[in-house]
Specification:
Strand content: under 5%
Low-confidence stretches: 21-26
Structural class: mainly alpha
Helix content: 55-70%
Number of helices: 34
Mean pLDDT: 86
Distance between the termini: 179 Å
Radius of gyration: 50 Å
Strand order of the largest sheet: 1-3-2
Length: 690
């Protein structure tokens, strides 16, 4: 077998052409970046054929649409720097025109245009700059150019440049309809370039702005700061400050005293804001113009009722604004105390209005009172008994308020005004005492805390002697549930007293605490403990004998027989209940009763003891508590001193040797019974005589 095949070999020859070391550079496609790089790297002080060719290429490239904005700016920079190196103003002008006069400021940059004014004579640039300014599509860039030219380092022809800037800006100034914060440097630069900046601001600039945008206070704030820059002459700054004060007084009539923001709906809630009112107040404080604030505050007071009517349409009430302004002014008054006398009237109005709408936070109303001309006098005039009674409808609000008064205003109460200060505190305490609900003095879960807080408040207000009035209120025992009130409320208060008094270096055996303790003890003995009841007719040993001694009797029956409760329940199975019932059979003549309750499972045996059997045990238990209450007064001598003539019957009742005397109520009822009995006897006697 034979195989034939054809073999072919290929070769490729590549020609590589490299320039010699002294050959000229070359580039393909976009020549702009390469030309810019070469020109920016050059340091030749004069034109060379090679650089002239690069310049020409860039000048031809700039007007085309194929060049990107980045490359355009780089090319403009390269041409500008080349013009500086060659001192060729004509090249700079040609570059500006190549960029397009309408886009020149963006391409050349503001800094580049200003540097050209430093490099070349203004007379050779002014006409070109005028064309650029007039044809530019960006008013912002034009204003930035004016600002930069007027604030650049001085040169011999700066006056000519300043005049050109004013000429270019005059129409813009006359036609201002909207000035933004970004425009402020331009306005300030034009103003400062004027030969008479204060007069220009007073007579032309500021009146124009007051007319077109009086409420844009962020711009006013920036403008005031710019025109008062500390590099200006001191005389000019002082004169300009006076002009600013006049402007603020002019603006006062244009500022809304109750901005129109409304709460909105659930989907679009508008938070409360003072803007622009708060900005105006800050400016007035910054430049010491209290008279402008007074104009605003007078309008607020005059329009308060109208604003209150607007609340029904979703507006905020005037109290919201007064509260916010009082808070705002507090910082500025602290920094500038000299403003305080000018704000006395506002704070008096604020105190009156805020108190009529007082919430549980009295901070703002007290802050307003503190900043009036006569704080304590204003306090007394504001916190009248009727007003305090109105506040006291919310008890917690009144407590918070009187605490704040004592804390914040005490140091302002001079010796001559201290009586008035205490009078207000006493009015508040009297209202809290009057409205204290004795029936609710004991609250499940917190015990007697409402009552003890009222006692502690007397110490907080540094009026411990007023506690006597508070304690007297506690002793007004309700006729209903008298026994429960004494046990839970009065005894609870008495037990809490030592802990309350200890931090104040006083004791319960001192007046008025000892008098209160004595009354509590007497009421406890008279209405809770009472006279010792006669012993049960059946001996205790006989009662105990009802238990046979078995485990069932010892565990279930005997505790019920010996405790002080009226009844007891045994929940066990049938045989256990049957055994207990057999043991109780002997007690039936004593008045002992029992029955099986079939409600629920298992059934239960309910045992009811006769009252005569329960009374001694209950009295013994209560007597133990009575001894504990009496011991709160201290030893026997302290007890005798506090109780006085009542000591004998109190201790005698506890010992079981005597009984409490009738109180004045019982005595009155007894006297009425005797009178009624005597009247009946007399009537019967007359009837028989007939």
């Amino acid at each position: 077998m034979r195989f034939d095949f054809f073999l072919t070999a290929y070769t490729t020859n590549v020609l590589v052409i490299t320039p010699s070391e002294d050959a000229r550079d070359f580039v393909a496609k976009n020549v702009c970046p390469w030309a810019c790089e070469k020109l920016l790297a050059s340091i030749s002080p004069a034109s060379t054929p090679r650089e002239a060719d690069l310049v020409q290429q860039l000048l031809e490239c700039l007007p085309t649409t194929r060049i990107s904005p980045v490359d355009r700016a780089t090319a403009a920079k390269a041409l500008r720097n080349t013009a500086y190196r060659w001192n060729d103003v004509d090249l700079f002008v040609r570059a500006c025109r190549a960029c397009g006069l309408d886009q020149c400021l963006e391409a050349m940059s503001i800094e580049g245009m200003v540097s050209a004014c430093q490099a070349f004579d203004w007379s050779n640039l002014s006409s070109t700059f005028t064309e650029i300014y007039q044809q530019s599509t960006s008013s912002t860039a034009c204003r930035q150019l004016i600002t930069a030219l007027l604030t650049s380092p001085t040169k011999s022809h700066d006056r000519e440049i300043a005049q050109w800037c004013r000429t270019m800006s005059v129409n813009a100034f006359d036609n201002i309809q909207q000035l933004d914060v970004d425009d402020v440097p331009w306005v300030a630069a034009i103003l400062h370039s004027n030969a008479y900046p204060v007069a220009y601001a007073r007579d032309e600039l500021f009146p124009q702005l007051v007319k077109v945008q009086p409420q844009k206070l962020s711009v006013w704030a920036s403008l005031f700061s710019a025109v008062l820059v500390d590099t200006r002459p001191e005389v000019e700054i002082q004169a300009m400050t006076n002009v600013i004060k006049m402007v603020l007084c002019s603006l006062a009539d244009s500022i809304p005293v109750y901005p129109s923001q409304t709460p909105g709906n659930i989907m679009g809630y508008h938070p409360f804001t003072l803007n622009p009112l708060d900005q105006f107040i800050v400016l007035c404080c910054r430049y010491d113009v209290p008279e402008a604030m007074s104009l605003i505050f007078d309008r607020m007071w005059q329009e308060r009722e109208l604003q209150q009517q607007r609340v029904t349409t979703g507006r905020y009430p005037p109290s919201e604004y007064y509260s916010a302004i009082v808070n705002l002014l507090s910082t500025h008054v602290a920094a500038k105390p000299e403003l305080k006398p000018h704000l006395h009237k506002f704070h008096e109005h604020a105190a009156e209005l805020l108190l009529s709408d007082l919430t549980d936070q009295p901070t703002m109303v007290l802050m307003a009172i503190k900043n009036t001309a006569h704080p304590i006098s204003t306090l007394e005039q504001t916190f009248t008994a009727d007003r305090v009674r109105e506040i006291g409808k919310n008890r917690q609000t009144l407590i918070i308020t009187v605490k704040a008064i004592s804390k914040d205003l005490r140091r302002l109460a001079a010796s001559s005004a201290f009586t008035s200060f205490k009078h207000v505190l006493k009015i508040c305490l009297a209202e809290l005492t009057r409205t204290f609900d004795n029936k609710k003095s004991y609250v499940y879960g917190i015990g007697v805390q409402p009552a003890t807080e009222l006692i502690e408040l007397c110490f907080t207000l540094k009026l411990p002697t007023y506690a006597g009035n508070v304690l007297a209120k506690f002793l007004s025992i309700p006729e209903t549930d008298k026994k429960t009130y004494i046990q839970q409320s009065l005894v609870g208060i008495l037990e809490a007293l030592p802990g309350i008094l200890r931090p104040h270096n006083t004791r319960i055996n001192k007046v008025p605490w000892s008098s209160f303790a004595a009354e509590v003890i007497k009421n406890y003995i008279r209405h809770v403990l009472g006279a010792k009841p006669p012993p049960f007719s059946v001996a205790e040993s006989t009662v105990k004998a009802l238990s046979c001694g078995c485990g069932l009797c010892t565990t279930h029956l005997l505790p019920i027989l010996l405790n002080s409760k009226q009844s007891g329940r045994i929940t066990q199975n049938g045989p256990v209940r049957t055994h207990i019932e057999k043991r109780l059979a002997a007690a039936k003549p004593w008045g002992m009763k029992w029955q099986t309750s079939i409600g629920g499972r298992p059934y239960s045996l309910v045992i009811r003891k006769p009252a005569a059997m329960v009374a001694p045990a209950a009295w013994n238990t209560t007597c133990i508590e009575a001894r504990k209450v009496l011991a709160l007064l201290g030893n026997a001598n302290a007890q005798a001193k506090a109780l006085g003539d009542d000591y004998d019957w109190v201790t005698g009742t506890i010992e079981g040797t005597s009984k409490p005397p009738l109180d004045h109520v019982a005595k009155g009822q007894e006297a009425k019974k005797r009178e009624a009995g005597a009247a009946d006897a007399s009537a019967h006697k007359k009837a028989r005589s007939r």
